What we know:
- The chain has helices spanning 2-26, 138-163, 173-201, and strands at 30-33, 38-43, 47-48, 57-62, 66-68, 71-74, 79-88, 98-107, 113-115, 118-120, 132-133, 208-209, 214-219, 223-226.
- It is α+β, with helices and mostly antiparallel strands.
- It folds into two domains: 29-136 and 205-226, Beta Barrel (Lipocalin), CATH 2.40.128.260; 138-201.
- Helix 2 (138-163) runs antiparallel to helix 3.
- It is elongated, with a radius of gyration of 31 Å.
- The two termini are 47 Å apart.
Amino acid sequence: xxxxxxxxxxxxxxxxxxxxxxxxxxxxxxxxxxxxxxxxxxxxxxxxxxxxxxxxxxxxxxxxxxxxxxxxxxxxxxxxxxxxxxxxxxxxxxxxxxxxxxxxxxxxxxxxxxxxxxxxxxxxxxxxxxxxxxxxxxxxxxxxxxxxxxxxxxxxxxxxxxxxxxxxxxxxxxxxxxxxxxxxxxxxxxxxxxxxxxxxxxxxxxxxxxxxxxxxxxxxxxxxxxxx
Length: 228
């Protein structure tokens, strides 16, 4: 009889605890940061394809307050944690490395970790699937080589124009400028041939994101942030 009585008391205590805990969870207040919201994140450590590896963790800090109804619900300085999801090594034909970053969660002011889904935006070096690439291959390297070789000829002509004084009222430049242009063309042709061959055989560059570098990201899914 005594054991049965104690069992009833224990059941009542457990029921009361459950009843008290239920309303707190149900009434917890949250405010939503909608999908499409833009955030600026500052890296707190370097992220690189040189020494980084898949699964390697990184941290970043939110630079802009997220407010709703005049209340700051996610202040600047909040910590975002993530990891490297994938690294593609650089290849021949000047194909650069590709870095894929996964943003896992944000730490709120009251210490809660809230999952979030972010996508990097606003960079010219993004791949179609969201990776950061350093050099898109031979085609891009070839265009850069053409531009550099053209700059060599242009620089030679400008040098002749600015260096040689012309006491003959312009006739002297009729000789010096074409000579400089021919010399520049020969030099640029040599550079073009040499560097084009180099572009075909050399590997592309690594991706290096330095401490303090700012990444612009966008929320893929809304985030509900608990508020006090």
